[in-house]
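To close the section, here is one more complete example, presented without commentary so you can practise reading it yourself. The ligand is S-adenosylmethionine.
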Amino acid sequence: MEVSGVDSEGKEFNSAQEMWREAIGEEGDETKKTQWYRDGVSYWEGVEASVDGVLGGYGHVNDADITGSEVFLKTLIQERLVNGGANQHLVALDCGSGIGRITKNLLIRYFNEVDLLEPVAQFLDAARENLASIGSETHKATNFFCVPLQEFTPPAQRYDVIWVQWCIGHLTDDDFVSFFNRAKGCLKPGGFFVVKENLAKKGFVLDKEDRSITRSNPYFKELFRRCGLHLYQTKDQKGLPQELFAVKMYALTVDIPPKVHKTRSKTRSNRPQIIK
Ligand SMILES: C[S@@+](CC[C@H](N)C(=O)[O-])C[C@H]1O[C@@H](n2cnc3c(N)ncnc32)[C@H](O)[C@@H]1O
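Output:
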């Protein structure tokens, strides 16, 4: 990516390549890259297994976040899934699930089964506990995968929705692309990804504390293009405190969304749109 960016200590980089070279070393230098991932997980291992912990001290944004996600998800289920999801056995994957906050407050109400993936064992244990008394025989958390996204290949054709929120910043660009390419084959027909992430105003911001990168909207779009994914819908998350990064939701599909005959202005951004 030919975009400039900064790190959390104010250091400037002329390009993403320059930043990645410093963060994970030259291509083929697996030692530094392994250390990058190890440091990211170690950071989260030192965080309390609570809503406030996984939200970086902003536990009070949970309600706004879940409400925003629910509005986005509901429309997508209706538009994309057979019968609008009615009378279907729906399955979701919650990636980088932390303590199961999103599954507990949202996904388990819409999906018959939810699988959780989380590399930090203490978070996944908390998720198991938090979800033990939630749901029912027909709405339940099924699998708990204790593995990082870059090492995960989901089961083939299992999921209607793969939800990726506030965790993909831990992956390098190549591992980001590689993960979505593997995961594409795990979606059922009509299935889709939701990526909900912080946005940098421009370029990127490297967080040296938790070993993650916050990407800009153009940066995400370029990576989605490299994944061969199509942008079906996007929506900005509203109601978050001003001092936080803006947050955007992306719905992504493997198939090309049908052309919409426009009756409104071309400047509307939340319409089906192929990534350019
Ligand atoms: C900000 S928390 C968000 C948790 C959850 N998605 C939520 O919104 O409540 C970031 C999560 O990403 C997880 N994570 C860190 N590195 C990861 C990786 N390589 N693959 C998947 N998840 C990772 C952390 O352990 C942590 O649970």
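Once you have examined the tokens, check your reading against these statements. Confidence is low (pLDDT under 50) at residues 265-271. The chain has one domain: 5-253.
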